[in-house]
Specification:
Layout: H1 3-9, H2 12-29, E1 30-31, H3 34-37, E2 54-56, H4 61-74, E3 78-81, E4 100-103, E5 110-114, E6 119-123, H5 128-136, E7 140-141, H6 154-159, H7 167-170, E8 177-183, E9 189-192, H8 206-209, E10 218-225, E11 227-228, E12 232-240, H9 243-257, E13 261-268, H10 269-278, E14 292-300, H11 305-321, E15 327-330, H12 334-345, H13 347-354, E16 357-363, H14 369-383, E17 388-394, E18 399-405, H15 412-433, H16 449-455, H17 458-471
Parallel strand pairs: 2-4, 3-4
Antiparallel strand pairs: 1-2, 5-6, 6-10, 7-11, 8-9, 8-10, 12-14, 12-15, 13-14, 16-18, 17-18
The structure holds flavin-adenine dinucleotide.
Flavin-adenine dinucleotide binds near residues 80 and 87.
């Protein structure tokens, strides 16, 4: 089926819209060809597949604004999409085929790079890995990284308020966005790209768009905070018996390394085994097996670079002496540091390769996380015999990815369809009882929309609905997601 066949099949309103959109965007900016659309209609986890009227790829904010005005006039819903690496189905349209898939990937220019001010203004489609490389070329760095960095875009990262492995020290995306430009549901352009250190002219409106998953506006560009590149880093891999011990080790490292502690990630032995199976060339960092493995990153600027390794050695020697760990190794080179991080970043694909699982992305107060996992994992495994409850990730932020893996003998897909919802409800109830969040960093999307409505604070939900109504009265921006 070609673009013109698809146009013929569309309703009169949709046809009128597509004709005008094609005039506006030209052949490079609009396609209804099913073969070109197909890769973008299924989410990264393969959980959702939708349909779309067409895919639009505007090349500038002005073009995007004109397109949104057109959508508003014809009542066409818009599903924004960046790298499609999101974990909650937020960038996948429903199966009505009525919505326009809006790809921001072509809007990927750097508009302004002020090395001295340590700020970069880039468009929504700029890919995280390219952002890292661009900053590095000037002796700077963008202190947010995650496994999907080769696909994830600035617009997607902002819209999900992404976290990653350096939140412990630098905060999530919200802390790194200094200015923002967004196209509103009626096509107006909100433009606040020039950052001011102090600005008390009322609400900090850019915060509305951060984490709103494309439901309030379309992020078209942002000014981001950069830091000087690290002059030296040491990555440590430690083995500990329990998650409670991992938390004690975290407190020790916070005391010993202070601001230099950049990351503290945990994974159980089963996760490490899964990664080693996925990556045949990877080697286990430690010889023995341990209940839990901890990846610690400590960094230094130029002033502290010479002494970093010594400080890390003292920190780990003290940890040994205090019996806070069973074994540990320290990276001796950048290649070794990268190899340890590769293991951490391969957990998601390795877990996916292991078979069906019901996934959760939860947080509880940091100090309660070890007890939460150690209490609830046996409860889950007892309630669903044969399952394995696996937690891994950002212990230092009180956030773990909590996966319940299907019993090996069952038909995994059928099991997931049958039990998945009930397992998630059970875990989300537990998280709520423990004062936590059902979405620590992946957002709500379509995956957790019902759960947010069920468990969210009624006053908070009511405010969110009022804001949505005020900014998108026609309900055209990413319908069926978040709220
Ligand atoms: C291997 C792997 C590891 C990951 N690890 C982490 C992690 O540690 N921490 C973490 O937070 N996330 C993680 N993620 C999830 C994902 O990378 C992030 O959610 C990322 O922010 C999504 O960016 P994207 O450009 O792919 O957005 P998409 O997936 O395309 O979209 C995500 C959401 O944002 C909306 N959106 C996208 N662009 C715009 C825009 N310009 N304006 C308005 N709305 C928009 C979409 O509609 C959707 O609701 C991981 C993903 C993978 C594949």
């Amino acid at each position: 089926m070609t673009t013109s066949d698809s146009l013929t099949a569309a309703s009169t309103t949709a046809r009128a819209f597509l004709t005008e959109a094609a005039e506006l965007l030209g052949p490079r900016g609009l396609t209804a060809d099913p073969d070109l659309l197909a890769p973008w209609l299924t989410d990264w986890r393969g959980r959702y597949t939708g349909k779309a009227l067409a895919m639009a790829s505007p090349g500038s904010t002005e073009e995007l604004s004109a397109l949104v005005r057109l959508c508003a006039r014809h009542g066409i819903a818009i599903v924004p999409q960046g790298g499609n690496s999101g974990m909650s189905g937020g960038a996948t349209p429903d199966d009505s085929g009525h919505a326009l898939l809006l790809s921001l990937r072509w809007m990927n220019a750097v508009r302004h790079f002020d090395v001295e001010a340590r700020q970069i203004t880039c468009e929504a489609g700029f890919v995280l890995q390219t952002l890292h490389e661009t900053a590095e070329a000037e002796g700077l760095r963008f202190p947010l990284s995650l496994g999907g960095k080769g696909s994830a875009t600035v617009g997607g990262l902002i819209s999900t308020n992404a976290g990653g492995t350096q939140v412990l020290r630098h905060g999530s995306m919200r802390a790194l966005v200094l200015g923002l430009e967004a196209v509103l549901a009626d096509g107006q352009i909100y433009s606040m790209l020039t950052p001011l250190k102090k600005d008390n002219r009322g609400f900090d409106l850019k915060q509305l768009f951060i984490g709103s998953e494309g439901t309030l506006g379309l992020v078209s560009a942002a000014t981001l905070r950069l830091l000087p590149a690290v002059a030296e880093r040491v990555v440590i891999w430690a083995g500990v018996p329990t998650l409670v011990d991992a938390r004690k080790l975290l407190l020790h490292c916070e005391d010993a390394a202070g601001e230099a502690l950049e990351g503290f990630e945990v994974l159980p032995q089963a996760c490490l085994d899964a990664v080693l199976q996925l990556l045949p060339d990877a080697r286990a960092p430690l010889e023995g097996r341990h209940g839990w493995h901890v990846l610690i990153e400590v960094v230094a600027d130029r002033a502290g670079a010479d002494t970093l390794r010594d400080r890390c050695e003292t920190m780990m020697a003290d940890a040994f002496e205090a019996e806070l760990l069973e074994d540990a190794t320290m990276s001796a080179s950048e290649a070794q540091a990268e190899a340890m991080w590769l293991i951490r970043e391969s957990i998601s694909p390795a877990e996916r390769a292991r078979g069906p699982a019901v996934q959760h992305d939860i947080s509880v107060p940091v100090e309660k996380m070890p007890e939460f996992v150690e209490t609830t994992a046996p409860m889950i495994e007892a309630k669903w015999p044969g399952t394995e409850a696996v937690a891994f990730g950002h212990l230092g932020d009180g956030n773990v990815h909590y996966h319940v893996i299907a019993p090996s003998v069952t038909d995994g897909a059928a099991w997931q369809a049958r039990e998945g919802k009930e397992i998630s409800r059970y875990i989300h109830d537990l998280v709520t009882e423990w004062g936590g969040s059902i979405s620590a960093e992946h957002g709500i999307g379509q995956l957790k929309r019902d759960e947010l409505a069920r468990l969210g604070d009624p006053v908070a939900l009511s405010i969110m609905r009022s804001v949505k109504q005020a900014l998108d009265p026609q309900g055209l921006l990413n319908p069926g997601k978040l709220i």
